[in-house]
Amino acid sequence: MSELRLLGLDYGSVTVGVACSDGLFLTAQPLTVIRRKHETKLRQTYQQIEEIVSERGVNAIVLGLPKRLDNSVGDRAEKTEAFAADLERRTGLPVVLWDERFTTVEAHRILDAGGARREEKDAVVDKLAATIILQSYMDFLGNHPEEKENLLTRIEESR
Predict the structure, then answer these.
(1) How far apart are CA 43 and CA 36, in angstroms?
(2) Please, are residues 3 and 24 in contact by the beta-carbon 8 Å criterion?
(3) Torsion over CA of 32, 77, 119 and 45, rounded to 10 degrees?
(4) Which residues pair with 9 in a beta bridge?
(5) What is the percent of the chain with per-residue pLDDT over 90, rounded to a whole number?
(6) Domains of the chain
(7) Is the entire prediction scored with pTM above 0.70?
(8) In the chain, which ranges are continuous DSSP H helix?
């Protein structure tokens, strides 16, 4: 497999930040923020993610898992795990849950350092958080070839 494209998602109660890796598996770029009116209204969210997967030739999805500081799983993480299971079923792609603690804080820090106004931050913070989630996962894989091999195996098995 010459190209590996991953989709990074930051799943929130009414938004999903979306990022995508480049075809060389080196960098993550922010794509968009998917918004919905209510937390439980996910049909259009799934449809938009499926369209992005198809358009971008995505091979796997990296979904931020919001663990608590003590590493336990709370209500938000349980909802994220359910979302992951639905995504895997709907797309047929492997979904990797990746610890996202502090990614939104880091995204705000980056935007503050760049002098972004509040309105600008609100528009991009979720896709920046998704980019940070995806980039940290790709960096991890770069340092753990056995984990990258496991992911490649999962991708091949999903085809």
Answers:
(1) 10
(2) yes
(3) 40
(4) 18, 63
(5) 62
(6) 6-158 (3.30.420.140)
(7) yes
(8) 43-56, 75-91, 103-113, 118-143, 145-158
